Amino acid sequence: MQIADFDASNNLVALFLKRADELGEKPFLTAKHDGQWRSLSWREAAEQVCLLADSLRRLGLENGDRVMLVSENRPEWALADLAIMAAGCISAPAYITNTERDHAHVLANSGARAVIVSDAKLARPLLPAIVQTGIAEQVIGMAPLRCGQSAFACHEWADLLQGDAVAARKAIDDRIAGIGRQDPACIIYTSGTSGSPRGVLLSHGAILRNVAGAGEVLAQDFGWTDERFLSFLPLSHALEHTAGLYLPIGLGANIWYAEGLDKLAANIEECQPTFMIVVPRLFEMLRARIVKQVEKQGKFARFLLDRALSLAERKAAGKERLRDWPTEKLLDLTLRPKIRARFGGHIKALISGGAPLNPEIGAFFQSLGLVMAQGYGQTETAPVVSVNFPSSGIKLDTVGPPLRGVEVRIADDGEILVRGELVMLGYWRNEEETAKAIRDGWLHTGDIGHLDQAGRIVITDRKKDIIVNDKGDNIAPQKLEGMLTLQPEIAQAMVSGDKRPYVVALIVPDAEWATGWTKANGEALDMAALQRLPAYRGAIRAAIDRVNQELSVTEKVRQFAFADEPFTVENAMMTPSLKIRRGPIRERYGERLAALYKD
C-alpha cells in the first residue's frame, strides 16, 4: 500500500475498490456468527457493495439523494455506507439509541428518500418516525422486517444482493469517475451534548485527508503489516466512521466487530487487534478494573503497579534515572506482559478521541507499556485535527501536532481555529449556523487552547462549557470532572457554578465501591438510603477533599449532591460517545444544584 493512494483517490469508493482489487481473498470484515468468527473477503465485499449500489439505483435513487442508515456495528454497516456512496447518494447514519423523536428529526432534516435498518428491534422506534415524516419511500432490512401496510416499500437485504456483479461494477466505475473530493459523502449528526443534533456535511476529500494524515503517522511510527482493528464505538459517530472504517480501508486492514461492550474484554483477547479506537470514558473504566484486579493479586502486584506509575511520572517530567533500568526490566518481565495480554498481545497503539483524556489516565496506560495516541478533532473536521504519536514526543497534556494538510491557529480569545480540506462543507440545511462556524475559511471550533513550543495543541476547555463564576474567574469543568472520577468512590460527576460564588458537583458513586462500603459498615445496599447516611456522605466528601487539595481556591468543589441514577445513553444523560450531556442533566437536577447555594 502506498500513502500516495490517499492523495490520488478522488473519492472513498474508489479507494475501497482499489484496495479490494489489490487484496482479493484476504479477510476484510470479520464478525461472530453462531459463536464463530467469520470473515468476508475484500473481493466478496466489493461484489456486494456493487450489487447493493446497483439495486439502490434501480429503486429510483438518484445522485445526491440521502439514505439513512440505522444499524449496530457489523459488516453490513460498512457495506451499506460504501454502497450508498457508490450509488452516488449521501449516507446519513443515525445512532441506534435514537428515540422515535430523534429519528423523526434526522429523517426530516436529511430528507432521506430511503432507510437501511438492521433488524426488527431497531426498526421499532424507526418505522413510526418514517410514517410520521412521510419522506422515505424505501425501507431495506438487513434482516426481515414486519412493515405491514405502509406508504413505503419494504425490501430484504438479500434480495438486493442479486444481479450481475460484473455489470454492476462497470456501472459504479463509470459513476464514481464523476465524483470528486469536493463532493458530499455523508451527513454525520452530532451526538447532541446540548440541543438537537446538527447534520455535518462532509466531503469525500475531508475524510480522505484524515485517512492520509493518520495513515502517514501510523506508517512512520509503526509500519504497515497485517493490521487488525476492533470496531466497537458507534459507526454513526465521526471518529469511528473515519478512524474505524475508512482508515482501515486505506491501510488494507482487517476490521473485526465487537459483540457489544459487555463482551468487549473477551473480544479483545480473541481479536488480538493492533489498533483500537477508544473514548476516554472507556479508558477510565478499564483503568478502574485493572487497578482492582491488581489489588486482588497482593502486595507484590500493587508494588509493581506503583513502580510503573512512578517511572511514568519521571519520564513525563524528563527526570529519568539510570538506576530505573532494573525496575523497567522487572516490569517488562512481570506486570506489562499480563496487561498487554488483556489487550490481545499485539496492540501497537490505543487511540483516544471523542473527548479530552485526563493525563493521569494516559500516564497509567503508558506506564503499563501501552502506547497512548490521544487525538483531537470534532465532527466538523471529519474528525481528526491532530494526534500524539511517538516520533512527535508524546506529551499527555497535549493532543499532539496537526496532521499534514491541516492549518491551526489560535484566535485572540484563545479559540482554536482550523483550516484545510478536512473542514466540513457546512451544516446541512443550516446556512446561518454554517456562517457562524466558518469565517474567512477558518472553522471556529469552540475549543479553547494554545500551541506549545513544539507545535502541539493544548486544549483547556470548551468555550461554551467554561464556567465563569460571579467574580469573573474562568473554570474548566472537564478538568475537575476528570479528577473527581479518578477517585475510587466516584463513578461520574458533573460540576456547576456559572455566575455563582463557588463550584458544586453532582456525584454518581461507584457501585462496586458502594457495595464494599456497605459490607464493611454493616449497611444495606440501598442507594437512596445510603445517600442520607452521614458516614456515607462523609466518605464521598473525603474523596472530593482529596481532589480539592490539588485545585486552586476558585476551582475547589465546595458542596455536592447525589444523582438519582448513573448518567447513561438510555436516560439521555450521556451521548452515544459517552460524553455527559450538561443540558439534560441541569434540566433534571437544576433545583438540587441550586439548593447547594442556600445557607
Q: What can you see in these coordinates?
A:
This protein is of the alpha/beta class and 599 residues long. The chain has 3 domains: 208 residues, Rossmann fold (3-Layer(aba) Sandwich); 172 residues, Rossmann fold; 129 residues, GMP Synthetase, Chain A, domain 3 (2-Layer Sandwich). It has 22 helices and 26 strands. It has an 8-stranded mixed β-sheet with strand order 2-1-11-10-12-13-14-15, sandwiched between helices. The protein has a 5-stranded parallel β-sheet with strand order 4-3-5-6-7, with helices on both faces. Strands 16, 17, 19, 20 and 21 form a 5-stranded antiparallel β-sheet that branches. Helix 3 packs across helix 4. The longest helix is centred in the middle third of the chain and has 18 residues. The model has no long low-confidence stretch (mean pLDDT 91).
